[in-house]
Amino acid sequence: VGHDDAVTSVCWKNNLMLTSSWDSSVKVWDYAPEAGGKKGPPPAQKVELEHETGVSCLDFDPSSMQAAAGMADGSLILWNVNDQMIMGQHSIHSDGEVKAVQFSPDGQTILSVGNDQYMKVLDVKTGTEVYSKQFEEGLRCLAWNNEVVLTGGESGNLHVWDMVNVKSLASLKGHRGPVTCLAVSPDGNYVVTGSEDKSLTLWAVE
Q1: Mean pLDDT value of segment 167-192
Q2: Is the pTM above the cut of 0.90?
């Protein structure tokens, strides 16, 4: 069970698990743990989606019917998981890999960040790039918090961006090294960031 090279990302929703790898594949697995916390049978591979280059990140849409794969060459590929068909392929980041990709909460847009210092928003239905913002540093990770987007930067900053009014709310210094990952609490009141400096920072959302 697994891939032929390093696994780069895992996403798990609605008893379906997505995994991506530098082996240029995305795999879809059926996995529903048994009640009571029992381990149950191992995940069963359902689909393998082949790509021409390594896959750096991925995400499911809220329905788990579409998947977005960020590529090592800076492109983004949108898949219909059930039909195993490519719905769109877009060259959106010009310098190196897509670092993180995530569907908006309503599934209508896809947000991505990359080595090229850009945060970009793609309309799922039309494939049109609807927003592009250049930062002063490379961006490593991202998360939606309702209509606010959080991104982690190479300099250790947490950037907070209002996507409705399209403006910066804050740029907060929290680490001495690049912010490599972040997550939002279920109630949206807290954010935690992790860094190459080996530290975790917990933020309260005001």
Answers
A1: 93
A2: no
